[in-house]
Amino acid sequence: MKLAREFVLAQLHELSELDKSRRLFGAMLHQYVLHPPLASATLDAFERKYAVVVPQDYRYFLTEIGNGGAGPYYGVFPFGQHDDSSGERLQVWSEFLVGDIGQPFKHRDAWNIEPADAAEEGPDSDEQEVLLDEFERQYFEPSIMNGAIPICHKGCALRLWLVVNGEQAGYVWADDRADGNGIHPLKDADGRQLSFETWYLDWFGNLKEEARVKGMGSA
Length: 219
Known about the structure:
Layout: H1 5-18, H2 27-30, H3 40-50, H4 56-65, E1 81-83, E2 90-92, H5 116-119, H6 125-139, E3 148-155, E4 158-163, E5 172-175, E6 183-185, H7 196-213
Antiparallel strand pairs: 1-2, 3-4, 4-5, 5-6
């Protein structure tokens, strides 16, 4: 496994030294610091409850490296938590966001729907508002993300999820519904889907490139 504890800690230290003023995206929040590791028993209980297997790379990260903290965007959520409506604090998994983890994730390809009916001119604004409300209820229905757990937020209610149940188990998906762009699997430049490990490790290279563009660390 490339997601080795010593490597991750060394990379975080390098980035922290490079970005002393915390100018890179998300650094002011996570500060390149990881939370203490999670007890394996917590994940064991989760697996028994939902009859799922936590992806090996994610389990290793949580139990050997850190239970969330420094990572892509605003950092990795501690297990069992996600951002609140303000995007600034954490809360335990809400039934209004997280679906039924015990059910398989049903998507294989990008998914989105357009509010076609609600967008049409209606005879009165009240009816149109009802249509829009119904569309939003369906669009943000928690069951859309059955079998997946939130692992990170990009801000403005845009999140990333890790699938733990179904054919897509082990892969990271982007949830861009807050921007009207639906959900889609994360892929690399060659079209290969990203696991938690590849997603997290890619962050190091991306952040160093951002630092280079901003002239950080140069003489």
